[in-house]
From TrEMBL:
<dbReference type="GO" id="GO:0042372">
    <property type="term" value="P:phylloquinone biosynthetic process"/>
</dbReference>
<keyword id="KW-0611">Plant defense</keyword>
<comment type="function">
    <text>Isochorismate synthase involved in the synthesis of salicylic acid (SA) required for both local and systemic acquired resistance (LAR and SAR) while SA synthesized through the phenylalanine ammonium lyase (PAL) pathway seems to potentiate plant cell death. Also involved in phylloquinone (vitamin K1) synthesis. Has no isochorismate pyruvate lyase (IPL) activity.</text>
</comment>
<dbReference type="InterPro" id="IPR005801">
    <property type="entry name" value="ADC_synthase"/>
</dbReference>
<keyword id="KW-0809">Transit peptide</keyword>
<feature type="domain" description="Chorismate-utilising enzyme C-terminal">
    <location>
        <begin position="285"/>
        <end position="539"/>
    </location>
</feature>
<protein>
    <recommendedName>
        <fullName>isochorismate synthase</fullName>
        <ecNumber>5.4.4.2</ecNumber>
    </recommendedName>
</protein>
<comment type="similarity">
    <text>Belongs to the isochorismate synthase family.</text>
</comment>
<dbReference type="GO" id="GO:0009507">
    <property type="term" value="C:chloroplast"/>
</dbReference>
<dbReference type="InterPro" id="IPR044250">
    <property type="entry name" value="MenF-like"/>
</dbReference>
<keyword id="KW-0413">Isomerase</keyword>
<keyword id="KW-0460">Magnesium</keyword>
<comment type="pathway">
    <text>Siderophore biosynthesis; salicylate biosynthesis.</text>
</comment>
<dbReference type="GO" id="GO:0006952">
    <property type="term" value="P:defense response"/>
</dbReference>
<dbReference type="InterPro" id="IPR015890">
    <property type="entry name" value="Chorismate_C"/>
</dbReference>
<dbReference type="InterPro" id="IPR004561">
    <property type="entry name" value="IsoChor_synthase"/>
</dbReference>
<keyword id="KW-0150">Chloroplast</keyword>
Amino acid sequence: MSTATTHKWLTNCYNILERHVSNRQQQHHHHQQSLYFIHSHRRPMCKGCYLSMNGCTEGENSERTRESVRTIETRRLDKVSSAAMAMYSLKMAISELKEDSPFCTSSGIMRVEVPIEEQVEAIDWLHSQSHLLLPRCYFSGREQKSCSGKLISVAGVGSAVFFSQPQAFSYWDWISIRRFLSEKCPLIRAYGAIRFNAKPKVSSEWLDFGSFYFMIPQVEFNELEGGSMLTTTIAWDNALSWSWENAIAELQETLCNISSSIVKFPKQAPPTLILSSHNIPSKVDWDLGVNRALQMIERNDSSLTKVVLARSTRVVPTTNIDPLTWLACLKGEGENAYQFVIQPPNAPAFIGNTPEQLFHRKRLHITSEALAGTRARGSSLALDHQIELDLLTSPKDDNEFTIVRESIIRKLEAVCEKVIIKPKKVIRKLPRIQHLFARLTGRLRSEEDEFEILSSLHPSPAVCGFPTEEAQLLIAETEVFDRGMYAGPVGWFGGGESEFAVGIRSALVEKELGALIYAGTGIVEGSNPYLEWDELELKTSQFTKLLKLDLPLREKVDLSFK
């Protein structure tokens, strides 16, 4: 096929797809609005034929639902050899529970788990459930020292109970989640994410998530060091119009649709072309926004010292993007990074491969990190070392990093007996980029300070700026897209332990609509709009590189039609 013919063919494809995407977006917007109306109602929630319980209460007006649920229990069945055998064991156990109805309490949560001898990747199990329109989640912690039985990653489908509201995440929402958690059942966890900012108007692609979205999975697969585990969780609360009988019936329906056959899918994206790529803001608008921010920072009457401006890139490829395939491909880049998927029922999937920890709490012990300043990795050891020295000695990057680190120190000192910073400033190397890094540890005065820690650490200067209020105001005035949960807290609450990452290096994948890829950079005195744009390109490249395919004879065709 000649170059001219190829270009004509691609142009026709692009025009057809553009009309299709436009129609789909209109339908999608109307569909999401109607779903959100249902979703934001009180319990139960129904999307299609899926029913679940929204555990969020009415806050101060709901005395009955502030206390912990009456029953919290974990039951472990005998170890089996395979995932198929584990599914059989669970189905039999749930049938027996339905017959016996062992609990007379008005509220509770119960986890039933089956250890599996073989080690199976949780992401493979989740991919095998792609036929389901149930909510799903995936969370993989950063690599640490290996030890037998250590939890590596978690995948879940369906929600025993979910927590979501259109209003900002509050203390009472945190209490609503804590009701279902206990130290004696540490693996009952609520996985989810919180919006970067709950105040701006929510765009259609983020409607299903609410201001926050957490779920305790109904069916969960745990990938362990040297083994696996398949579990189910049943939650009920008569005060929320969701009985034990409701919970058991919905769980049995979900189990009937879960696939016991786990296929190890190829961890590589299929060859594809990007039909369109659109940045918000454009390069011209980005330069204007950065220069405006620099003028604000340099003003004598302004307290603003840093602001993080972000970009949203809509990419539409020739084939649908599978969010799990994308995430699996990023695992090679995910060394020492968190990986996550949060997807409400029949909604877009929020995925990410983030290196940044917001905080990790285990009882009273808490850790957090400062991460700022970015450079590419060098193509040789000598060049990599040279780039490292440039980052370490850069006054502009040191200023940006110091703002982030000192802000986190002050926030931890407000609720901790003592804060230790070690290391204070080193280079943290990732496969494609490197950052300035510091680790902070402290001891909380009370576990009840967890909500205060979460609400004070987010948004950090690393994703917002400093001071926070001034930076948020400038972001709201400058950015014309909805960040949604990009740069917000992503992670889990558990009994006695919780862990949250910062939702950067992330994307929102929408079926038939491509993906929105997000990236941001810190603007401080001395920032250059052109270099900051290059940093955005570097950060989004881990996603876009999965979509690029050269044309025959390596002849490039401009598919953006600018």
